[in-house]
Amino acid sequence: MSTSVHDAGQAAPPRLRWLAATIGAFNANKTSWVGLVIVVAVILAAVLAPIIAPHDPLEQNILSRLQPPHENYYLGTDYFGRDILSRLLYGARISLVIGVASTVIALVLGSLIGILAGWYGGKFDVVVMQTMDILLAFPSLILGLILVAMLGPSMENITIAIALTSIPSFARIARAPTITVKERDFIEAGRALAFSDARIMARHILPNIFPEILVMGSLWLASAIRTEASLAFIGLGVKPPIATWGGMIREGFENILDSYWLVLAPSLAILIIVFALNILGDGLRDAIDPKLKGER
């Protein structure tokens, strides 16, 4: 007896089914592929920065200060004669490391909190989620600014601050599907077999809600990069002379009228990566719930 493609897809392992659904959603929404290509390109540019950067990002050449883009400096130079392109490539490393690290920390801790709250329910759920609501009441940038000001401006502290501002959002995303999944028959079967709570949450609940958390992660990564750039712009980012996109905008702001290229390149870099992550997240969302296609 022949097996239909639909039946074969249903019989495939969950991971393969989700991968097939993601590819199908990306094919239906071509802009998702554009987002993926841009994100991969930015990551490769950051990783290969020591190889492809034409100059040392910290090398100062006073004789070449504030030069517009030309054949020797493709994106021009800054107030200290440093190559903008090289600093842009190395700045991508800082933005991506802080963005990814803070998002992963928030994803892990927030998902754990949300799953525990949804699983145990009752007073524990009420106390935990009300605490998350209090944190959500603060704008993420303001809360991040307060935390960085208290901890001090360093790469590690900025990562921790951005992660703490993101935890409540991940907790809410994880809690809602946990409440739904825990009522399903296979969870009841696990309880009947005397599986521990930890085993059920790790082996049965987490795999079923992880795609939704992953979509949230892709979207929040864009927010984390934007928050890091904002903190750097107001002087609470990684200390100079290390290149960061927000720091480059801050350094060039005073000369923006005469030397537009100082802020144009890092601003476009932030715009492009945030845009790419958002349309990539749209594709992942369509893969999880096809009913949401077209609802932008």
UniProtKB/TrEMBL annotation:
PROSITE patterns: ABC_TM1. GO terms for cellular component: plasma membrane. GO terms for biological process: peptide transport; protein transport; transmembrane transport. Pfam families: BPD_transp_1, OppC_N. The chain crosses the membrane at residues 33-53, 94-122, 134-152, 205-225, 260-281. It comes from the Bacteria. Residues 92-281 form the ABC transmembrane type-1 domain. Gene3D superfamilies: MetI-like. It is a multi-pass membrane protein. The keyword Transport applies. It is found in: Cell membrane. CDD domains: TM_PBP2 (cd06261). Keywords: Cell membrane, Membrane, Peptide transport, Protein transport, Transmembrane, Transmembrane helix, Transport. Belongs to the binding-protein-dependent transport system permease family. This is ABC transporter permease. It comes from Bosea vaviloviae. The lineage of its organism: Bacteria, Pseudomonadati, Pseudomonadota, Alphaproteobacteria, Hyphomicrobiales.
